[in-house]
Automatic annotation (TrEMBL):
Entry's family note: Belongs to the short-chain dehydrogenases/reductases (SDR) family.
One function term, GO molecular function aspect: oxidoreductase activity, acting on the CH-OH group of donors, NAD or NADP as acceptor
Keywords for the protein's UniProt record, in alphabetical order: Oxidoreductase
Coiled coil: none
Endpoints of the signal sequence: none
Name of this chain's protein: NADP-dependent 3-hydroxy acid dehydrogenase YdfG
InterPro entries registered for this protein in UniProt: NAD(P)-bd_dom_sf, SDR_fam
Listed NCBIfam families: PRK06194.1
Name of a matching Pfam family: adh_short
């Protein structure tokens, strides 16, 4: 079992949605918190609220797409608390619409945050965790969009598939690197794949940097995808707090795959069967109602 009390958690994208819920859950378990977000005002509000509730927390404004800032985040965590036991590579953004209508800026923004942000987190924190020789764990937030490829969200799907593969490989690499190491000193990892949950994700554009904004107006497919995302997110049945609860249970048990909406698994199986039987891909949105509520 992974013990949380008194341990140090670093959370990216901590000022909203899942990240904030992870922080609240960690605080309730007596963890020390290092919260990172690209939005400094929302981050300061989150840190203040947690401190008002008695938590030991610091905020480090961080753009996870910037390798140097993520390394500075790791150093800030060590300066404040000396160790890092739990890392949530959680910050993420999305943009929708037909693939061929997406701009180079759309690709750069989403991949810089969703993929490179996780990569920088893994690079900066895993060596620290391995050196500590104490139980430690990394949770990468992917999505059901890392297991399925719904239409009109191709960049997001591709970025989350990258997070799935990156994290499965991290699992294998950690196993190899720690083969024969002493009991208790192990670094583990988990892959979080939620479906749609009401958070700020449908309004992710608020975090897009000025230099990656589009000059052109959104196309019809982009407007439709934005509306569909708003509806799907708002209709999500689980809350961010529910997702945090499920995630902490999985970390405690050191479980790798964290699928918060198990109704989605029949569609994942169908996708795998399409591949195995060389069938053309089934549109996941044409299937079960659960998939319409997947994200
Ligand atoms: N809500 C859903 O339905 C859903 C489903 C599956 C996966 N996810 C994933 O969950 C993660 C968290 O998203 P959420 O739903 O809580 O959304 P959210 O918008 O509520 O929270 C995301 C946070 O990340 C921050 N952020 C954005 N760009 C950043 C950057 N470059 N550096 C640091 N912080 C940055 C934002 O300021 C925001 O506070 C994301 O990776 C998202 O893709 C969300």
């Amino acid at each position: 079992m992974f013990e949380f009390e008194g341990k140090v958690a670093v959370i990216t994208g901590a000022a909203s949605g899942f990240g904030r819920a992870f922080a609240e859950k960690g605080a309730s378990l007596g963890m020390k918190l290092v919260l990172a977000d690209v939005n400094p005002e929302a981050l300061a509000q989150t840190v203040d609220a947690l401190r008002a509730g008695g938590a030991e927390a610091i905020g480090v404004p961080t753009d996870v797409s910037d390798a140097a800032r993520v390394e500075a985040l790791a150093q800030a965590a060590l300066d404040a608390f000396g160790k890092v036991h739990l890392l949530f590579n959680n910050a993420g953004v999305g943009s929708g619409g037909f693939l061929w209508e997406s701009t180079a800026n759309d690709w750069a923004w989403v991949f810089n945050v969703n993929v490179m942000g996780v990569a920088h987190g893994v690079r900066a924190f895993t060596p620290i965790m391995l050196r500590q020789n104490e139980p430690a764990h990394i949770v990468n937030t992917a999505s059901v969009a890392g297991l399925l490829s719904p239409p009109a969200m191709g960049i997001y799907n591709a970025s989350k598939h990258a997070v799935v593969s990156l994290t499965e490989t991290l699992y294998h690499d950690l196993q190899l690197a720690q083969a024969g190491s002493t009991e208790g000193g192990t670094v583990g990892c988990s892959l979080l794949c939620p479906a749609f949950v009401p958070t700020g994700i449908a309004d992710a554009e608020r975090a897009r940097p000025a230099d990656l904004r589009n000059d052109s107006r959104p196309t019809r497919s982009q407007i439709a995808a934005g509306k569909q995302l708003q509806r799907a997110v708002q209709s999500g049945k689980l809350t961010a707090a529910d997702v945090a609860e499920i995630t902490f249970e999985a970390i405690a048990a050191r479980r790798f795959y964290i699928v918060t909406h198990p109704g989605i698994m029949a569609t994942v199986k169908l996708r795998h069967e399409d591949i195995e039987q060389l069938r053309n891909p089934t549109d996941p949105m044409s299937l079960k109602p659960e998939v319409k509520n997947a994200g």
